Amino acid sequence: MHVEFLTGVFSLIASLVGTFGGILTSTKLTNYQINELKKQVDKHNSVIERTFKLEEHSKYVDERIARLESEVEK
User: Fold this and answer.
1) Is the pTM of this model over 0.70?
2) What is the rounded distance in angstroms from the CA atom of residue 47 to the CA atom of residue 7?
3) Euclidean distance between CA atoms 29 and 59, whole angstroms
4) What DSSP character marks residue 61?
5) Distance from C-alpha of 53 to C-alpha of 49, rounded to nearest angstrom
6) In whole angstroms, what separates CA 11 from the centre of its chain?
């Protein structure tokens, strides 16, 4: 009886350690993936902001060219 009880207790402890170890590993991996995704989103947002600035500058340049062309035509 005593041996069976100890076997059960050790099995329970091993199961708990394995379960919590798996949970911790899974949590670390999930956190790592989330952080990597955040980095990619930040890069994407940076590209969007730079594209917007380039479009604004291009708009300004187009207007400037149009004004200069109209001055040349006069």
Assistant:
1) no
2) 60
3) 45
4) H
5) 6
6) 39
